[in-house]
Design a protein that fits this description.
Elements: H1 2-21, H2 28-31, H3 54-68, H4 71-81, H5 86-101, H6 112-121, H7 125-151
Helix pairs in contact: 3-4, 3-7, 5-6, 6-7
Amino acid sequence: MFRHRFCLKVHSTFRADAIAAGIIMPPPAFFSKFRPRMQSRRSRKPASTGMKTGKQELRQAFRRLDAELPPRLAALLRWLRHPDSRWIRVPAGLLLILGGVVSFLPILGLWMLPLGLLLLAIDAPFLQRPMARIVNRILNWLERRRARKRAH
């Protein structure tokens, strides 16, 4: 068995030397060592045009939202965003969505629907970009409203 491993090692060494010398053509898999690996579709970084991924947009929206919220609510939101809080975040998001759907009942309101979707967007990539845009639109609307109020 030892001799067999040694023969394979010697053979592969000679083959590598022959490929380096240009005597034989390497197999297609040999080129993969020198080509940079293609990143998977999910981990592909955005183009250099300055485009952001949905996750980056959502983080930016959460930062803006943190700045607007009172300190205790901002701390609660940061805790819910933490990866370890996933087991609480997902059921809370689902319950908030359900509460938003039955908003005709007292106490429950339509405000619960976007908040639940926002919590679920942390774990659902297809919701990240739309929810980030919705949060940014709402915060822009609040800023315009405050500016008009100050002007009067």
